[in-house]
Amino acid sequence: MSGIKACLDTNVFLNVLNKEAIYYSHSREVLQAVERGSLEAFVPTLVIAEMLTGFYIEERKTDAQKFLSALISDEHMKIVPLSVDIAASSAKVRAETGLKLPDAMILATAIKTQADFVVSNDDRFPPTCEGVRTVKSAEMVVLLKRAKKK
Question: If DSSP codes are grouped into helix, strand and coil, which group holds residue 80?
Fold first, then answer.
């Protein structure tokens, strides 16, 4: 384990699922680093809800189950339920940053789990908030490679 802890935004999973050209390879590398144990990942239950919603809208129930099973079975993916503490922190983050509530919940989860980073390819996140730094998936790949060399 590299010692790097990161909270993953929904778009990291979507980039891989949809093979989105500019983010696909780096987001895939981030998820592979989690699978290898090179990155400890926190996944808010909100991310699960957002991902499953897409599967259900497209009537892909089998894919929804596969996604959920894969998350649950990966020992390096820590699923973080929405607690009262995270909800209160989400409100504070939203008020201070102007983020939409789902993004504020992801950032608050990162803060409360003492993650080093939020990995998001969304430009709306602030660069830092309460000690948590926001990085795009490409930057996280670079950070992981540096940590591996140490």
Answer: strand
